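Sequence only, no structure available. Ideas?
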Amino acid sequence: MALITASSCLKPQSSSISLKTNLKTNSELGFVSSQLSGLKISCDQCVAPINISTTIKLPVQPVARRICPFTGKKSNTKNLVSHSNHKTKKLQFVNLQYKRVWWEAGKRYVKLRLSTKALKTIEKNGLDAVAKKAGIDLSKK
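Reply:
I predicted one. Tokens follow.
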């Protein structure tokens, strides 16, 4: 039975591997040095590592808000009350409608999404007055 000592296993078998690090800049020499073991690995072009942990951004579709831009009306929270007096939250949404309204100053139709209350207000006061009060620029639409 052969006896192997620890000192014989730790001796390097070939002297071709250099464990010394060079103090010169590695980009000039074309070498990439490993920081763990100090070994030099030659390469044709030294390329920076690619960041693999990038986040993937999915396309987000814009969601139309359920708020009237002219009156500022928004959804109301109400309770649904059962026979046992158990209350469940429910939203009452604004009655928003898509409507083509004639804009006299622009001499054209403007397609708007507005509540029926705003439609009655526009018929009473005029589109320019209601849009000016709400701070809406109709020339963009």
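The chain is about 20% helix and 25% strand.
Hope that gets you unstuck.
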